[in-house]
Amino acid sequence: MASFQVHGFAAKGKRVIAKALSRDKLEVFIAQLPACTVFMEACGSAHFWAGRLASHGHTPKLIAPQFVK
Prior knowledge:
This protein is of the alpha+beta class. It is built from two helices and four strands. The strands form two sheets. A two-stranded antiparallel sheet has the order 1-2. β3, α2 (about 45-55) and β4 form a beta-alpha-beta unit. It is globular and about 30 Å long.
């Protein structure tokens, strides 16, 4: 089962979210999250998730895997 690591930061850089979510829980989580910019690793399912994020009003940004920690 796939899990997604979610880390959220406030405008001044303070971490406000750090959790692992399953695919089903991620969908619910992004639907409830206020619109924001989401940076994510460009991988096989990144374009699918970018579309799901955009459908909920978020702005997805894909970044190359070598720049993701």
